[in-house]
Amino acid sequence: MRRNGATAAPDWPGLFAQLAQTTRDPRLARFYQAGTVSADTPLEQAPLLALDVETTGLDCQRDSIVSLGLVPFDLRRIRCREASYWVVKPLCELSSQSVTFHHITHSDVREAPRLSNVLDELLTIMAGKIMVVHYRTIERGFLDQAVRHLLGDQLQFPVIDTMQLEARLHPRHRRAGWLRQLLGRQRPVSIRLADSRLRYGLPLYQAHHALTDALATAELLQAQVARHYSPTTAVGDLWN
To answer: What H or E segment, with its residue span, contains residue 86?
Structure first.
């Protein structure tokens, strides 16, 4: 299911092969050498890994990652025992607003490792997987910026964005006519993670915890596929 006029996703297997040859860092080389599945792989056969990061703000150029959660899963099962979670010391100071948002405090990060200390393990877990996120700009943008800072090289990977899938199903501007919108009868449907989950009858979880949000994202994709797609849908129809 591709949107008309949508920008085609890269040839991810080909891009990974190219990046494996050009990167100078051995950790990134191993990540890219693991490759990724082809675009015609059915979703039921794709190795999926839900990812969430919490940050000090929303600007990946100025803000930093403070926690990461990873949950491996497929369309029928979530492997919670294999989940990973880290709190890491950010490169910039925590703000009162970010602490209120994700509840990670100065004392939590004081003795936490730097992202550089967990990067090898992080890339090893991510290798060969299709990342599943809710709003790819955050996860892919912050991880790419962090790797550029630490290794002087880019980090690229395909993602299935559950927020984007909801946006396809619930466009913000419907053909209901200007009068209905003027009278306030046509309101945009929220595609935030918690609101999206409620439409599928999924339970509410504590928001803005990287591990919980990764789990929530995995469950949301399972529900989206069950209701709107098929296990045999090609992964290339959903990834970016």
So the answer is: strand 84-87
- What is the number of domains present in the chain? 1
Structural domain contains residue 239: no
Domain that includes residue 132, residue range: 20-162+171-229
| Beta bridge mates, 65 | 55
Say what angle helices 12-22 and 26-33 make with each other, to 10 degrees: 150
In order, the DSSP letters of 166-194 are HHHHS-SS-SS-HHHHHTT--PPPP-SHH
CA distance 175 to 128: 41
Interhelix angle for 210-228 vs 162-169, to 10°?
40
pLDDT digits (tens, 9 = 90+) for 208-237: 999 999 999 999 999 999 999 999 999 999
Question: pTM score, two decimals?
Answer: 0.91
Q: What CATH number is associated with residue 129? A: 3.30.420.10
φ, ψ for residue 132, nearest 5 deg: -120, 120
Tokens 């596929």 locate to 225
124-145 pLDDT per residue, tens: 999 999 999 999 999 999 999 9
d(CA 106, CA 11): 42
CA 3 to CA 190: how far, in whole Å? 20
CB 190 within 8 Å of CB 162: no
Q: Which value, to the nearest 10 degrees, does the dihedral of the CA atoms of residues 53, 187, 7, 215 take?
A: 30
